[in-house]
Amino acid sequence: MAAILFQSPNPYRNLNTRAYKTKVSRNENLAKLQAGYLFPEIARRRAAHMLKYPDAQVISLGIGDTTEPIPEVITSAMSKRSYALSTVDGYSGYGAEQGAKQLRAAIASTYYADLGIEEDDIFVSDGAKSDISRLQVLFGSNVTMAVQDPSYPAYVDSSVILGQTGQFQKDVEKYGNIEYMRCTPENGFFPDLSTVRRTDIIFFCSPNNPTGYAASREQLTRIVQFAKENGSIIVYDSAYAMYVSDDSPRSIFEIPGAKEVALEVSSFSKYAGFTGVRLGWTAIPKDLLYSDGFPLAKDFNRIVCTCFNGASNIAQAGGLACVSAEGIKAKTHHTFGSTFLAGSWDVFSEILEKTHVVTTPGSGFGPGGEGFVRVSAFGHRENVLEACRRFKQLYK
Amino acid sequence: MERLQYNYLFPEISAREAQHVKKYPNAKVISLGIGDTTEPLPDVVALSMANYAHGLATPTGYRGYGAEQGSKDTEVFVSDGAQCDISRLQLLFGSNMSIAVQDPIFPAYIDSSVIIGQTGDVETESGRYQNIEYMKCGPQNSFFPDLSKTARTDIIFFCSPNNPTGHAASWEQLEQVVRFAQENGSIIVYDSAYAVYITDGSPRSIYEIPGAKKVAIEVSSFSKIAGFTGVRLGWTVVPKELMYSNGFPVINDFNRIVCTCFNGASRIAQAGGLASLSKEGFKAVISLVDYYKENAEILLETFKSLGLRAYGGVNAPYLWVHFPGSNSWDVFNEILEKTHIITVPGSGFGPAGKEFIRVTAFGHRENILEASDRLTTLLK
């Protein structure tokens, strides 16, 4: 149902059957994808709505995009770096593909002090989304993966693109060969690992996008144990770690034994408002080995050197200021969803039509998202308050 | 990953440079190896980025996610550079694809092909990966392949002006490539990263050739145009009329890749790119390009005066110097050991590079002149 609702216009619609076609076959993995990537579709719907209601004050609580300006201590570091590029002493060309030494060291010491993750375990990137795909390129097509259901769509979509999956099964809204680990209110948004099959890779995002749930120390210990027993690799997405307000772990490496089974992906996007600046990192411990004993980090390094050319030096200057700056307080992040009996795209449409607030339908995050709507807490305070007023009107 | 024979070429060169510096801590090493720009950015470009960054601290200037493509609904996809785009294109094509490359060539096409699973193992004797069609380019064929001897492949990577040989294909030659692609139903991936270095009126874009929009994708970069090697900005053009065998537009799938596997080039870099295309900005970046071209002239003169056959250097910031009968790693080592100049051994670019050395023309003028002196002393 979701697939039909947001399929892009038929690409064959203007096809002149006598138009020249190459003899190159379309990559069948791309053909497996059901529709466009989720967030551009949300953007399309928002744009269409704004055309329909040009005077409406549309509030976007859909795409998780930061809205508040970046602290000056960070932007002035980027300004300075930009300006320095016009000077003889300040100009630099290609940087190390793994990132500036200083930044790697700062990330290691700020986020992984006493966790045994060192400067050279850190690979600076242009963001977690790009890193997820580079990791998929690293793993190749002959691996199986498990994801939380619901989860950020990039894990599943990149898996399909790399050829790790079977076809989409419309009745269950799942791709073949992916293990979906259901997370619902019934199980406290943590999967029942006793029912999860072994896979090579386990994608685990905590705090979770979209459910907002942060796994406890005890739960993460179980995941690490599960990975160890199965000889699996955990790809731990800690993009929202800064939003943890209780004592839930912020890094998978706080769990003993994790360095042998996990790598961690993170991002400056939601922490420093860098969604447009583009900066993130992946931490790969030296102890993470393939079945033949070959260190994962070595192959990832090769990928980074061949398929990437480093994050922008200006963005990295901003990252350094961010990590070194004191007094940058993380905003508290509350995502909440409500359960509805109707389909999540229907609810999305109803909310949009009646309150002019953009949200994200839960089924965009997997079949486990059906019955939910994701509301992001990024926004100017006055817009968030206004949105709350409108919701109260709608649902009173 | 296991199939890849060595480290990626350029980190290997960096490693050798580092070793050499350790061995000779007092030597003044001149790098004419990795093709890295050296001259500062024009003020107008740097200032635009500084201002943009500054604006991010203000409510009206702050911007979050941009369109992954740079801007929507065009055939131009803005990226963080050609090397990244090449891998995204490989992801698009998938593993069931055959490719042809020029030999010698910038290694990212071959290495990304191996990583994606399009190739077989390397043949130790020839140094060639199975299932890749190598189109030999040498002095004997004026650095343009004999297409009558080239087998059909799905994808044809074609870089012009060429890295490393410096050869810019003529209109007639590109017309041949386009026709070849049409006859075979192939897709050309045209790398035009060095187009602004062209001096002799050779085509700057594959789309100057009629019919190219139906068979070609073009990749380019601000790296060597605007000195953006560290800033990271490039673009790929996928024409709407380029179609797979089943009529599906390639642009739709590339758009999907860009939206799923990427999140847009840094907005600050994009601001700089925009400034470099303004009237004032473009004039300034072209004067830097001219500076590097003058470097190339100086180096060309040097090699000529030594009686060596140096190709390129006219339409590209690379010289391709022939040392007949030699092994390029030996020549690389000798030059490094005796003159403290880093170059790149030709075999790093493919088996046809075995007797060649690539020398880049990027560098401060005084280093280029100093390097010329040292080479003259060594090689005369």
UniProtKB/TrEMBL annotation, chain A:
InterPro entries: Aminotransferase_I/II_large, DapL/ALD1, PyrdxlP-dep_Trfase, PyrdxlP-dep_Trfase_major, PyrdxlP-dep_Trfase_small. Its cofactor is pyridoxal 5'-phosphate. It holds the Pfam family Aminotran_1_2. Residues 57-292 form the Aminotransferase class I/classII large domain. Gene3D superfamilies: Aspartate Aminotransferase, domain 1, Type I PLP-dependent aspartate aminotransferase-like (Major domain). Keywords: Aminotransferase, Pyridoxal phosphate, Transferase. It comes from the Eukaryota. This is Aminotransferase class I/classII large domain-containing protein. It comes from Rehmannia glutinosa (Chinese foxglove).
Automatic annotation (TrEMBL), chain B:
It comes from the Eukaryota. Coiled coil: none annotated. InterPro entries: Aminotransferase_I/II_large (IPR004839), DapL/ALD1 (IPR019942), PyrdxlP-dep_Trfase (IPR015424), PyrdxlP-dep_Trfase_major (IPR015421), PyrdxlP-dep_Trfase_small (IPR015422). Residues 76-374 form the Aminotransferase class I/classII large domain. The keyword Isomerase does not apply. Keywords: Aminotransferase, Pyridoxal phosphate, Transferase. Its cofactor is pyridoxal 5'-phosphate. Pfam families: Aminotran_1_2. This is Aminotransferase class I/classII large domain-containing protein. It comes from Rehmannia glutinosa.
